[in-house]
Design brief:
Elements: H1 3-60, H2 65-71, E1 76-77, H3 87-102, E2 118-130, H4 133-147, H5 153-200, H6 232-240, H7 244-248, H8 285-298, H9 315-321, H10 326-351, H11 353-367, H12 371-398, H13 422-427, H14 439-449, H15 455-467, E3 481-493, H16 499-505, E4 512-521
Antiparallel strand pairs: 1-3, 2-3, 3-4
Helix pairs in contact: 1-3, 1-16, 4-8, 4-15, 5-8, 5-10, 5-12, 5-14, 9-10, 9-15, 10-12, 11-12
Length: 524
């Protein structure tokens, strides 16, 4: 073999080894690339999920600022200043934020390649949660969750104490209403029976000289009087037919005449409905206390003297009673206050032997000694006495004064003698001081015994009406405000490391399609 042939054979041998190792290298590189691509795809999926979450967070960053500043409530106005609920607009905003977050350095000097190239194929809003869902309890839940950490033990203790007082007063009120009805019925029956007796006796009743001989409740005769005393119950019946505001207000003409258009309220009209479920965690006494504190700190009452550009002036009274005008809400609140005080005052009168005895003597004098009528009349007088005292209490409260929860001999104002002069006594009542609880304290107790399930939606009615008065918010609707949503996005994950085996082996991984879901609900 010549020298040239040996060298050629050697070169051929070297060439065969190079091809083998080249193929082997490509295979190893393909394997490594496939493994790296698999890892990269997982990273791209994590990036896609993060981009969707960031997009959702960015959408919720566009919350209605006036709603937050005025009422500490988070909500995205899905109408975006228009009149209609725009679910498609939400998707557009979500797509915009996702595309930005995919390449946040686009348009800057920091642009470059990335190991996790992803491209969004678009998003869709699957479900939404609105502030008005569950009759406003989504709104209530957000408030309670946000304020729970700030609620101290002192607030809880005050709420529980007020709840205890309100329950006692409510029980007294129900007892009073029952006994008042029974007394009226018994009096009617006793007077009817007496008339029948007088008719049967030929109308001859009383002493021969025409005077009345009343009997003491213990059965002994009292000194005769020439004429029966006036029955204060006749006046009380007339008083109860009078306008209640004229009795308890020094100047009834000062009552606000503001009104709501009932059919336009969110709670009355057909409204948007969300379909995203959420876990309610704020029910119970603590939640009730926190929400009630929120209502009293963000809405006005009849005691607020500052004039505000709000739909109603007596907002707390509306939350309690739900009437469409300030006047009607104040009347309804006054009647509730009156009943609350009547029960407490009636219990006090029953417990005071001297006051009971005075009522018995007057009843005996009016009844002319007829035992059945005297007993029924005594009960009716006691109830009327409690009613008159309660009118004085409410008048003092509306004048800015205070009334103790439980009366004493010193704090009880109305005498039995003045019961028949009740309108004059009320007109001369100028007291604006006193000790005890003020109007809003009693209002808090009324809230505790009211329809708690109605408060959230009524509050949202007021929030909507008040925000509509602001410039540029004439079309604002509270049922367009989103408190949470669930969205889905479709992605295309482009290959990176798979390009190497694709170049050499003409095979490899192509683009990967991927779906992600994200959800967010406002809460702290």
């Amino acid at each position: 073999m010549g020298k040239e042939e040996a060298m050629a054979e050697k070169r051929a041998y070297r060439g065969s080894m190079t091809v083998f190792f080249s193929v082997l290298t490509v295979l190893f590189l393909a394997l490594i690339s496939a493994m790296a691509e698999s890892v990269r795809v997982q990273g791209a999926r994590a990036k896609a999920a993060s981009v969707l979450d960031l997009g959702i967070f960015s959408v919720f960053g566009e919350y209605e600022r006036d709603l937050l500043e005025e009422y500490e409530v988070f909500g995205v106005d899905a109408s975006y200043g228009g009149e209609d609920f725009q679910k498609e607009k939400l998707s557009e905003r979500l797509d915009f934020f996702m595309k930005y977050n995919i390449e946040p350095t686009r348009g800057t000097m920091l642009t470059g390649n990335t190991l996790f190239p992803v491209r969004t194929e678009g998003s869709s809003i699957l479900r939404t949660l609105l502030l008005t869902d569950e009759d406003g309890w989504v709104f209530r839940d957000q408030i309670v969750q946000n304020l729970k950490s700030a609620a101290g033990t002192e607030l809880v203790a005050e709420f529980l104490e007020a709840r205890k007082k309100s329950q006692e007063m409510e029980k007294n009120q129900k007892d009073y209403e029952k006994q008042e009805q029974e007394a009226e019925k018994a009096l009617i029956e006793a007077e009817a029976a007496q008339r029948e007796e007088e008719k049967a006796a030929g109308g001859n009743s009383g002493a021969d000289d025409g005077s009345v001989v009343p009997m003491d409740p213990d059965g002994s005769a009292l000194p005769a009087v020439q004429e029966k005393p006036d029955n204060p119950l006749d006046l009380i019946k007339k008083v109860k037919k009078m306008g209640i505001l004229g009795l308890v207000l020094e100047d009834p003409s000062s009552v606000s005449m503001k009104e709501l258009v009932k059919k336009e309220l969110a709670g009355e009209r057909k409204r948007e409905k969300g379909d995203l479920s959420w876990e309610r965690e704020s029910s119970g006494l603590i939640g009730d206390g926190i929400f009630q504190e929120y209502l009293f700190s963000h809405f006005s009452s009849a005691m607020d003297t500052e004039e505000k550009e709000t739909a109603l002036s007596y907002e707390l009274e509306y939350l309690l009673c739900g009437k469409e005008s300030d006047e009607k809400n104040l009347k309804a609140t006054v009647n509730k206050l009156l009943l609350l005080r009547e029960g407490v005052n009636f219990v006090y009168i029953l417990a005071d032997g001297e006051m009971r005895h005075s009522a018995e003597l007057l009843a005996a004098a009016i009844a002319g000694g007829a035992p059945g009528v005297t007993t029924a009349l005594t009960a009716a007088l006691l109830a009327a006495w409690a009613y008159g005292e309660s009118l004085l209490d409410v008048r003092i409260l509306l004048a800015g004064g205070k009334v103790p929860a439980v009366k004493t001999k010193e704090s009880f104002q109305l005498t039995l003698e003045n019961l028949g002069k009740l309108p004059e006594v009320l007109a001369s009542c100028k007291e604006k001081a006193g000790e005890g609880l003020d109007y809003e304290a009693y209002l808090q107790m009324l809230f505790l015994t009211g329809k708690k399930k109605s408060y959230p939606m009524r509050a949202l009615n007021l929030i909507e009406c008040n925000l509509r008065k602001k410039e540029g918010m004439g079309h604002f609707q509270i049922d367009h405000c989103i408190a949470g949503l669930e969205a889905e996005a479709e992605w295309e994950l482009s290959p990176v490391f798979a390009a190497l085996p694709e170049a050499f082996l003409k095979t490899g991984l192509g683009a990967v399609n991927y779906h992600t879901r994200g959800k967010f609900i406002y809460e702290i």
